[in-house]
Amino acid sequence: MSGPLLKVENLTKHYPTAAGLLKKTVPVIRAVEDVSFTIEAGQTLCIVGESGCGKSTIARLLMRLVDPTAGRVLIDGTDIAGLKKHELRAWRRRMQMVFQDPFSSLNPRLTAGQIITEPVENFERLTRKQREALAADLLRKVGMSPEMMHRLPSEMSGGQRQRLGIARALALEPAVIIADEAVSALDVSVQAQILNLLMDLQQQMGIAFIFISHDLSVVEHIGDRVAVMYLGRIVELSPCEALFAKPVHPYTEALIAAAPVPDPTRARLQAPLEGEVPSPIDPPRGCAFHPRCPLAVERCSVDVPPLVPMADGRLVACHVRAPATGEPAQLALLPESLPAVG
Fold first, then answer.
1. CA–CA separation, 184 vs 187, rounded Å?
2. Cα–Cα distances in Å, from 329 out to 184, 270, 312, 332?
3. Contact criterion met (CB below 8 Å) for 48 and 247
4. Which domains does the chain have, with CATH numbers?
5. CA neighbor of 326 nearest in space, from 340, 316, 337, 341
6. How confident is the model over 37-94, as pLDDT tens digits?
């Protein structure tokens, strides 16, 4: 197969704020705006940003739980964003999701074995022996005893329930798994177990992960590439190691600097960001970050900065640090207003 496993092109989602009975133009919530990225088999792309920046909306769009306003989502070259419901059914197997809450995302009336095999039975008929064998195999893969297949979710711990959610996602042998804040509701020790499990499964099965998280320490541990979002747009898309070693976009710097670090000698952000995230109903003109950015110039309030390539392969949308010429020299001229962390 040539090309990336998953390719997202100019993905956009607007939600109207009123029904518009008189057919008049109504304000829209610009949840996701012109988002593009690719992911290869066996890679992990992490999506980070403040609450309300559009991370979970992207997950719903990729799963076709909501329809995009514009853009394309290509899996193995097929645009699933344009498929009819009956055409989409076969492609449901290629992409699965692990949800944030490991309790509310599981049917409390079904046993673990039924939860795991239910997705498969939507596509094919299984005998009782086949169901039990499938459930036992997947429970082993996620580090649980096959005897657990007879338990209800209420009889499990939070970590066990999340392992069960992962087993359910694996049942259809997907190419891509979207994990939306999949460890945020778990204890720190259990988080580490689940993250290591995901990484082991990826190595064994070649699954691509899209990992949505607020926790930058988790992202640094599991990610291959990181997409930083602000108000519905990607402002920096970078290899994980490069992003944490030397963030370029001022918003990325602020996110990393704001994360708690158990090291008093490590450099900290001198002047935290001020103000609130603007409303997606009425976003600022030009760069959406400019009202809070200490580096903003006049052009930032007029033109939307495009994502342009830098010398080290990352993409950055910033008129100051990554002008549209894409000159690599800009990386050596980072202003001192927001010192790099580390």
1. 8
2. 39, 25, 11, 6
3. no
4. 6-223 (3.40.50.300), 228-333 (no CATH)
5. 316
6. 999 999 999 999 988 899 999 999 999 999 999 999 999 889 998 898 888 988 989 9
3-state secondary structure of 28: strand
Burial of 91 (0-12, 13-18, 19+ CB in 10 A): middle
Hey, what are 298's tokens?
Answer: 């006049």
* 289/188 Cα distance (integer angstroms): 32
Residue type, 339: P
Question: Which residues neighbour 10 within 8 Å (Cβ) at sequence distance 6 or greater?
Answer: 34, 35, 36, 70, 71, 72
Indicate if the pLDDT at residue 1 is higher than 50. no
Q: Give the DSSP letter of residue 327.
A: -
With beta carbons less than 8 A apart as the criterion, state whether 151 and 119 touch. no
Question: Which residues, in sequence order, are CB contacts of 66 under 8 Å at separation 6+?
Answer: 13, 57, 60
State the CB neighbour count (10 A cutoff) for residue 130: 14
Rounded-to-integer distance, Cα 177 and Cα 86, Å: 22
Maximum C-alpha span of the chain: 68
pLDDT band for 149, please (50, 70, 90 cuts).
very high
- Relative to beta strand 315-316, strand 308-309 is antiparallel
H/E element, 55 = helix 55-62
Which two three-digit tokens encode residue 299? 């052009």
Q: What is the mean pLDDT of the chain?
A: 86
CB 145: neighbour CB atoms within 10 A? 11
Tell me, rounded to whole angstroms, the distance of Cα 109 from its chain centroid: 30
Q: What is the DSSP letter of 84?
A: -
Of 217, 218, 226, 177, nearest to 195 (Cα)? Answer: 218
Query: pTM of whole model > 0.85?
Result: yes
DSSP-derived pairing of the beta strands 315-316 and 233-239: antiparallel
